[in-house]
Amino acid sequence: MQHRNRFLWKLFSGYAALLLLGVLVTGVTIERRISSDALRELEAALEGKAIFLREISLKPLQGVQVAGFPAEVAELSHASGTRLTVITRAGAVLADSHEDPATMENHVSRPEIVQALNHGRGIEMRFSQTLEEQMMYVALPVVEGGETIGFVRCALPLTDVKRRLAELRAIIGIGLLVSLALSLALGWVLARRITWPLMQVTQTAELIAGGNLDERMPVQGTDEVGVLAKAVGDMAASMRERIETISRDRNRLSAILAGMAEGLVAVDAAEKVVLLNHAAGRMLGVKPEDCIGRQTYESIRISGLVEVIEHTLKHGQMTEDRLTLLDKNQDRTVDVLTSPLKEDGNRIVGVVVVLRDLTRIRHLENLRQEFVANASHELKSPLTSIRGLTDTLLDDPQMEAQTRSHFLSLIQQDTGRLSQLINDMLTLSQIESSEQTLDLRPIDLADLLRDETAALETLAQTRQIDLNADIPDTPLLVVGDDAALCEMINNLLDNALKYTAAGGQIRIRSWADGNRISFSVADTGVGIAAEHLGHIFERFYRVDKARSRELGGTGLGLAIVKHIVLAHGGEVSVTSTPGKGSTFTVQLPSCQ
Questions:
Q1: Under CATH, what is the fold of the domain 40-157?
Q2: pLDDT tens for each residue of 307-342
Q3: Nearest-CA neighbor of 52 among 78, 73, 81?
Q4: Which residues contact 508 (CB under 8 A, 6 or more apart)?
Q5: Among 53, 283, 285, 340, which has the minimal tally of Cβ within 10 Å of its Cβ?
Q6: Is 182 left (phi over 0), alpha (psi -120 to 50) or beta?
Q7: Using CA atoms, how far apart are residues 523 and 223, in angstroms rounded to an integer?
Q8: What percentage of the chain's residues is helix, strand, coil (to nearest 5)?
Q9: Cα distance between residue 152 and residue 131, in whole Å
């Protein structure tokens, strides 16, 4: 508001200065004109009286004795309020209305007399030694027969003139002051009327500049201010539209950059980071907001990447490279593609870097190779056994019936093992690839545990293993697939039976814990060493390979358990002590 008031005062002070100057010039001009006119009128009045005096002074100046002439001059002076003087050609004062002529000096050298003699009229303003005051004199010659015989002079004190001029100046001054006051008041009103709309325009423009693009001008009209207000309003609307467009484009670009799996880095010609998306931040182990505006070697601090950027800036060519980035969990393998940004054809203004994380791809490739190797190895053993046994049977047609029956029994076991291995591989593949659609519905997990325990009760008794269940009578409801959950429970119980010796014990417990339903399968079997606990849910991983194959294990049962539990949004864990047994615990979301 302060700068707006300054504008008002500047406008008003400029107007006041011009007005004051005009008043002064006008006042001085009028004063001079009035003074000049007053003096001319005074001169004309004195000249008229001098003409009249000349008429009555003709005979005395001719030497004719006129009785009572001095008295007549004095009476005329008193009537006109003017000093009257009659002077001979020689300069002697013949008559004077205010002084005794006998005591007066010769006036032939008076300026007004000299002017009257030379020019036919004399006018002079000077100090009168006789009257001791400033006087105006008008002198006329008295001519007879073409010859000057004397002079008449009329005089008036300038005190009266000055008084009249002072009165006129006062009147003029008062009038000018009143006019000035009225003009200043009017000027203030006009200045306010001019500046107030401009102040509104300025205030609205400041609000618009501050981001309030919905603000509009209250000023109406078709004058210049109204046109300006409309222009600012149109500018705000256009600016809002452009900002919205830019914002939409920026948000769209930000969403694209944020959703990119590839990392994107852009640097300018000075090697300062101008863009770094979240994917690049994750790969490089930096925060994007900490890198923007900083040098690459300060923010990224990966020498190989900085060198690639510098090479592209220097040579202006696309560059491909592969970097290994050290990470606290695992090393990352990243493909780097750099491309120069150019303006005006050839001038390099920056570099765009695209980073592609190959870590997961290489990990999956390693898993694939490992899976192929493990699957080949697992398939090779039963196939080799079957082929050897069938070759033996074919080569010896006379083989004893008992031996032949034993060989066929071994072939049947290997084909069963091979069939189980293929089935487990297919099941695991379907779960991992989401090809198997789960029929999710509310299921009482307690009933499934009772059914699966009862189904294996006979096998447990055969192996002299005590199988008991601690399952509550109340329902334990979860949302799941009946067949998948049964297979998970069966695999855990079958795994416990395989690795628990005769005389051992297996205990199944289940319980509800808040919004989770949990159950555990605890055995007193051989147990698992600590170094194996982190791997037992991996495919084809066996703690004791020879024992596992002897018991008919495929190495995929626990991997299937893990993927079924994860598909149901749950968790599976294991605790174990070698020689004392293992406990597998499963937690699933409750739907109660």
A1: Beta-Lactamase (3.30.450)
A2: 888 888 888 888 888 887 776 666 778 888 989 888
A3: 73
A4: 449, 453, 467, 468, 469, 470, 471, 493, 519, 520, 521
A5: 285
A6: alpha
A7: 96
A8: 55, 20, 25
A9: 18
Q: Which two tokens stand for residue 359?
A: 């870590």
- How is the chain split into domains, by residue range? 40-157, 211-259, 260-357, 364-429, 437-589
* Residue in 44, 49, 50 with CA at minimum distance from that of residue 141: 50
For residue 541, name the pLDDT band (cuts at 50, 70, 90). low
CA dist 30 and 34 (Å) reads 6
CATH homologous superfamily, domain 260-357:
PAS domain (3.30.450.20)
Separation of alpha carbons 301 and 322, rounded Å:
16
pLDDT digit string (tens) for 488-536? 888 899 888 888 888 899 999 999 888 899 999 999 988 888 888 877 8
pLDDT at residue 3 tops 60: no
- The answer to whether 40-157 and 260-357 have equal CATH topology is yes
Q: Would you say 94 and 61 are in contact if contact means Cβ atoms under 8 Å apart?
A: yes
How is the beta sheet containing 93-96 ordered, strand by strand? Answer: 93-96, 83-88, 147-157, 133-144, 122-128
- The CA-atom distances, in angstroms, between 430 and each of 479, 489, 588 are 20, 18, 21
Strands 505-513, 466-470: pairing is: parallel
Q: Name the superfamily (CATH) of residues 437-589.
A: Histidine kinase-like ATPase, C-terminal domain (3.30.565.10)
